[in-house]
Amino acid sequence: MERVSHVKFVEILSDKLGISEEETVKKLTEFTIQVKKKAAAGDVVIDGLGTFSLVDNKLAFSPDESFELEVNHSYAGMLPVTIDEPVAVKSEPDKAAKKEAEEAAEGTPTGVKKGKSTTDDLEPVTDDAFEEEEFVDVIGEQDPFEIEDEEPFDLDDDDSAKPTDKKKTGKPEIEAETAADKARLAATAEEDKKKRQKEEESEEAEALVAAVLAKKTAEEETTTKTPSETGETTSDEASKSAADADEKSGKAAAAKPSDTEKKADDTTEQESTPEPVSDDGIKPEWVESSDIAKPGDRSQGNEDADSADKTSDPKKAKAGKTATADSDKKAKPKEIPAYDRNRPDSNTGTIVAILLAALVIIVAALYFFGFIPGAPSTATDPVITEQQAPPAAEQPADVPVPAEATPDLSEREVLAREEAVPDVTAQPDQPTGDRPSDVAITPPATETAQTPQTAMQPLSAVAASAFGLRGGMDTSIMRPYTIVLHSLDNRADAEREAGALNRAGFRSTYFQVQLPTGERRWRVSIGQFASISTAVEASQGLPEPYLSNNFISRIESYNP
Amino acid sequence: MDNKFNDTFREVLRSLVTEGKSVSISGLGTFKTVHEKQHEAENEEGHKVLMPPKDTIEFIAEGK
After folding, report:
1. Measured distance between the N- and C-terminal CA atoms of chain B, rounded to whole angstroms
2. Minimal C-alpha gap between A70 and chain B (Å)
3. Does an H or E element contain B31, and which?
4. Which of A34, A114, A347, A483 shows the greatest Cβ crowding within 10 Å of its Cβ?
């Protein structure tokens, strides 16, 4: 610091007064004595300089405010800065101007709020916001891929075929099993019913054949023998005819020979009973509704039998065989209509069985594809699985997913990620508050309220190269921290100093400030920093005189 | 006291001190500027703040 001695000060003062140094010394001495004298009595106020006073028998001086401001011109107007306020990036100049206007309306000259900073409202968006999206996705991945699937529901499956698979599932599977049992029981009942009907039809056919033959034989006996012999011979012939009928019926029943033989034997036993066989022994409905019950047919058959008897009376065996053959010829066409007569019943049963089976299949399918509430989605068809499967996050934990459906779930996962990615990258320049729900993906809690700060971008969105001591100024960064080196009273000097620093490799700028006195000053600074700590750290490496005389401030506005 | 002398004395002293010079006046003392560096402090609301640097005027009375 340059020192100005008393002699030097007298020389300067004499020059200003235009008087001699001796006279100047005389007047200066008189001035100091009066100040000391008056200070002993009280304060001596000199306008534009300050107040002299005597404190502890010692002269003290308190500078005038204007004098203080003038001395402190380099740092005039600077206010305390809240440490580590976040730095944002402006995206729209209008928003920045609006922000400045709002700050000015709050009464702070430099736009810095007292207490809580305006940027405190900013909630810096970090990777945490996006991690939550990934967490939801992970949740979506968990259930579908971790749980094993049961075998798809199959009506044809036997219960004993896959016991372990059935044990894996809970209530839904039990319901499905019940439906399958019902279907199987219905099918079994229908099959039994069909078998019984076929057996009944076969028995009835055999009985019909035997009855016809017995009638023919009886008629032959009545025509060839006396009435007294008729009772014995009739039974004998009936037995023979029944035996013949057994043989013929065995040939006629081509579908089930073994069953037919058994039935024929049974019929033979019945026919060989002592009781005479007559029309009364035949079931009424059998005769009434059958085609063979037509009188014409029966008479024709009798005529044939009569003619056969006439031609072969001596050889009853042959006649019997012929009659049997004839009756067999008649029996065959008669047997088929007899079967046709019962067909409507069998068709109805079949239709009912088919309808029941179809109904069971439909219900099972509905249950299977989840149209019935509470039904699990267990389809093996990939497309159906994708349609029925709820969103991964909503899928209950106990819902199994088939291994075959895994590719589709993977596809969903990929799609979900593809949908989530644009939320992060599609609008990188958007303000924090306008980001659409970090959003979909992201929970509402991560959304930042829309504030005037929406013109700013989070610091994390700014490239690291935008900060530092050297390089070029990035004017899109709002209110960065900077190191002030000069405070000048005219723009030309500020521009010159900033240019010199820029040529030296510093990123430098200058900006205008207005002092509380209304005076304007131009400050030259270097560097842009995201935090005050990094700015202080950078200032430690500056050369003198900047090392001992700098200040960390914020750039409120760039070169006007 | 001569008003002209008073005005000239104030003007010269302010100018020299503002220029950062230390001015010694016999019978009174020495006027000089002192640079106060930036430092951390706590404001009235309890927030940590960085106080700006400051150039102040210091007067050292002449010893007897």
Report:
1. 25
2. 6
3. strand B29-36
4. A483
B18 contact A CB<8A: yes
Q: φ and ψ at A181, to 5 degrees?
A: -60, -45
CB of B61 within 8 Å of a chain A CB? The answer is: yes
Q: How many angstroms away from the CA of B3 is the closest CA of chain A?
A: 11
DSSP letter at A85 equals P
CB A271 within 8 A of CB A218: no
Q: Cβ(A336)–Cβ(A290) under 8 Å? A: no
**What is the reported pTM?**
0.36
Three-state SS for B60? Answer: strand
Q: How far apart are CA A197 and CA A343, in angstroms?
A: 10
Distance (Å, whole) CA A196 – CA A282: 20
Q: Are strands A44-46 and A50-55 parallel, antiparallel or unpaired?
A: antiparallel
Distance (Å, whole) CA A203 – CA A249: 11
Residues of B in contact with A80 (CB under 8 A): 41, 43, 49-52
DSSP string, A494-559: HHHHHHHHHHTTB-EEEEEEE-TTS-EEEEEEEEEESSHHHHHHHHTTPPTTTTTS-EEEE-SS--
Degrees to nearest 5, angle at CA A312 with A306 and A317: 105
Q: By the 8 A CB rule, do A527 and A535 touch?
A: yes
Confirm or reject contact between B60 and chain A (CB < 8 A).
no
ipTM exceeds 0.90: yes
> Which DSSP letter does residue A51 get?
E
Of A322, A283, A305, A291, nearest to A218 by C-alpha is A305
Indicate yes or no: CB of A16 within 8 angstroms of CB of B12: yes
